[in-house]
Amino acid sequence: MSSGTTHRVVEAVWRIESAKLVAALARVTGDVGLAEELAQDALVAALERWPQTGVPDKPAAWLMATAKHRAVDVFRRAERLERKTAQLGRDLQEAEEPDWAAALDEVVEDDLLRLVFIACHPVLSREARLALTLRLLGGLATDEIARAFLVAESTVAQRIVRAKRTLAAAAVPFEMPTGPDFTARLSSVLEVVYLIFNEGYAATAGAHWTRPTLCQEALRLGRVLAELTPEEPEVHGLVALMEIQASRMRARIGPTGEPVLLDEQDRGRWDHVLIGRGLAALRRAERTGTALGPYALQAAIAACHARARTAAETDWIRIAALYEALAELAPSPVVELNRAVAVSRAYGPGAGLELVDALVDVPALRGYHLLPSVRGDLLARLGRATEARAEFERAAALTRNEQERVLLSDRAAACGGPLR
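== RNA polymerase, sigma subunit, ECF family ==
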């Protein structure tokens, strides 16, 4: 096997196994920062040795053994060997070639779940949670995270460093929260995963309409979380929502990268495997017997679109009712804006515009480009072209996504009259 091929194998193994490796090391060291350093040391060792020795039969076990050997060295140098050897060195002393893969299998699920909850600990800022989650659980490098969110690599690096220091300073234990704390932390975990997905589904800024890699990472994290918490309906609701939305990714982009709106998409290009997975996840959420939460309600809305063979067959009356339930359960101006769209499709643009006009002065939506975009669409459908054009121009000026700006400018132009 050539050196280049070996390096690609190492990278693939790292992307798959790094979260498990860091999670197991964090459990025994109690320090996420140290755990990641040890895992990185093992990665470097693999890059150095595997081109000469070949890829081992159990690469994940090799990485774990190497990382734990290095951990023992670290503690020895720190003169804490006696205290830590009981945790880290016992298996190393009992056998020259311990079966680390078997040991990992015994604890990997608990370790991964703990790592998810640590990466999304409320002591961290939202930006720090995003960066740390993608680094530890997504296996993304700092530069990849920076490119995904269009920020400087140094900014992401600082966020990750500060996050580790904050966790250490707060003495956050490597254990699962319980009771109300679990519920609160789970909400934070789901929010972070969905934020990652949303940034991939509709990029906030930049030259590209979507960032599929982020959607893939969020889906992977959601699926792992669903297997680790099988009795949590909102986890399955979030997975259902992401699966169904992700099914449209190919149809959302035109030949030159331009956005394609839902009504104009070729539904034959939707991924029906992902739709099937999403509907199955929604059924799992429904089978728990509890009332649907915000993510499951949004998944039910997405399912209405997925089941419609054509845009004209969409059950907008049901979607409007689901948005009303969502607004009662998790009220927010953005939910109200989406409800207005559904109401306009179910009961006419005049009914939708009445709801949108009530949101115009809401502070939370000031500068939110989708508010004038929706208002422009409703005005255009009512034949008020001049007003619609002004709204689309305003929306185009507010968005930071280049592809979306072109789309909104084109819609403004289609309303007629001179460009301003």
